[in-house]
Amino acid sequence: MTLLDIDGLKTYYGADDGWVRATDDASLSIERGETVGLVGESGSGKTTLAKSIIRLLPDNAEIVDGSIEFDGTEITELSDKELRRQIRWSEISMIPQNAMNGFDPVYTVGDQIVEVIRHHEDDTSKAEARERGRELFDDLGIDPDRIDDYPHQFSGGMAQRAMIALALALSPSLVLADEPTTALDVVIQDRILETIKEMQEELNSAMIMITHDMSVVSETCDRIAVVYGGRIVELADAETIITNPRHPYTLGLRNAFPDISDDDQELISIPGSPPELVDPGEGCRFAPRCPFAEEECWEVTPQPESYGDGHQVECHRADEIEHLQAEAGKKETWREQDLGDREPVGTADEQAAEAEVRLDD
Amino acid sequence: MGLRAYVVRRCLQLVVTFWAFFTLLFVLFRMMPGDPTSMFIMDGMTPEQREQRIAELGLNEPLHVQYIEYVRQLLTGDFGQSFIYNDPVTSIIVVRFMNTIVLMATALIFAYIIGITFGALMGWWRDSRFERGGIIVTLVARSSPEFWVGIVLLSVFVFWLGWFPSSGMRTTGGELGGGFVARYGSLDFLHHLFLPALTGAIAYLATPTLLMRSTMLDVLNADFIEIKKAEGLPERTVLYKHAARNSILPIVTVAAIATGTAMGGSVVIETVFNWPGMGREMVSAVNNNDYPLAMAAFFLMGSVVIIMNFVADLAYVYLDPRVEYE
Question: Where do Basic and acidic residues bias regions lie (chain A) (predicted)?
Answer without folding.
Answer: 326-344
